[in-house]
Amino acid sequence: MTKNRWMILALAPLFAVLLLFEVLPLLAVVMSSFSRGGSWSLGNYGELIASGYHRSAYITSAWLSVLTTLIGMGLALPICRFLQRVPNGLQTIILTYSNIGANFTGFPLAFAFIIMFGLSGTFTLLLKAAGLIEDLNIYSIGGLVLVYSYFQICLGILVIFPSLSAITVEIEEAARLLGVSRLTFWRRIGLPILSPSLIGAAVLLFANAMGTYATAFALAGGNAALVTIHIGELVAGDVFSDPNLADALSMILVVTLVVPILVEQFWFKRRVRHAA
Amino acid sequence: MRLDPVRVGLLALLFVVLFLPIVAVGLNAFAVEWAGSMLPVGYTWGWFAQMVTDPRFGQAVRNSLILALGSLLASSLTCVPAILAAHCYYPKLDRLLGGLVVLPYAVPGIVMALGLLRLYAGNYGIVLTGSPWLLILGYIPLGASLYYMPMKSSLNALAVQDLLEAGYLLGVSDLKLQWRVILPCVRQGVVIGLILNFTLVISEFVYSNLLVGGLFPTMQILMYVLRGGSGHLLSVLIMVYFVIVLIATTLVSLIVMRRKEAL
Q: Which of 3.20.20.70, 1.10.3720.10, 1.10.1670.10, 2.40.33.20 would CATH assign to domain B57-262?
């Protein structure tokens, strides 16, 4: 009896907070996305689908996220592989730094890139002097790709590194001694072993980019044509305020993020069952 | 496999690139003027002095630290006991908890903020917007996974069922067993959770801007306010923020290193 009382005391506060500040708010968004003028309606979704303005923001967000996920994964994987071979102390320092980098978002990150690549930024001047570029607009989509890539690489390192412990340097060495080429090793052994965690990491990076608001807002203000920025504009904007439309757009965004996660989970579970 | 110089060079280059944004902000914080030239024309403490004597700066740092402290207290007191209880006694609830804590990874901050706005801006008779309490409570779900992950990895490495059975045989109460045996074993996971949660709160912009904004200006809100200016003051503020985060992160890595040695 006393045990149960203590258990309730331990569990209830967290579950209450999760209910009140996570689950119910989300349900409120779902409900209000189907409400228009006080009655149930699919009108918000209809308006969004018909609107070229919001559709193009969705498409921009999607390709920006896919591109920076590929950049993040493509650079983080070789970096992590290399990190396995450096001494422990250095490894920890680099991982610590990646942790800072992955959290280095919003205004601090955007402003750092404005200093470097803004109209009279050091690198803008350098690249212009070298004749590599004619013009650089950090406030454009290209600028967002650059800035997003920064935190995507850092986040990629953080999430990929632990999973790499499944493939020790010794395994690769053993394969190499047996005459297996590096390419064959990765194609036949490395990637198949790692694929569940790599896909998981990619899904996380995609969701991270797709849901980014603060960094894009800090860099391009309300002008960036991205889903999250449009949601912010619909909620707090002076011109386009339409809360129900914001909710519907949010739901489309959430579904876009949840579906890959569910597919990944399902696929991974099936693989595990097959292997067992 | 030996380290070949080409790879070492590439890695070094990469980390220079990753480090550059911080260097740029640092230089700008102390630059007399930096426009149209590769490097600043001169250096000064002037911006730094101007920023720290600005009353908005003191207010923002104080608010951020109050928020962080309140958040740490609230999140650790709710998360730690629940994670222990769920793991040790209620595996089904534990699975539910695992799902709930990772939900914020699938639901972007702006969407969650929107939901909180729907519920607590007066539509249902409750007004929490404009108050730091909404942030303190709202950050708990965002930070829960930061306790859950490291604590679960410690708990999974622990033969909890054996310990519980040993406790029953010896007649030790569950509470005492949790407090004296299990909690000390996952102590490091808790500390990592605390520090990561601190970084989360001090870096968070979306909730604080949309839900509370100017009524309780934090460092992130002040950055937003300063964005239109010369940029030197903003750079000073970012450096101060960055030093705070760096200290927190260094603490995490020291703890992680100690944990590795202990194993």
A: 1.10.3720.10
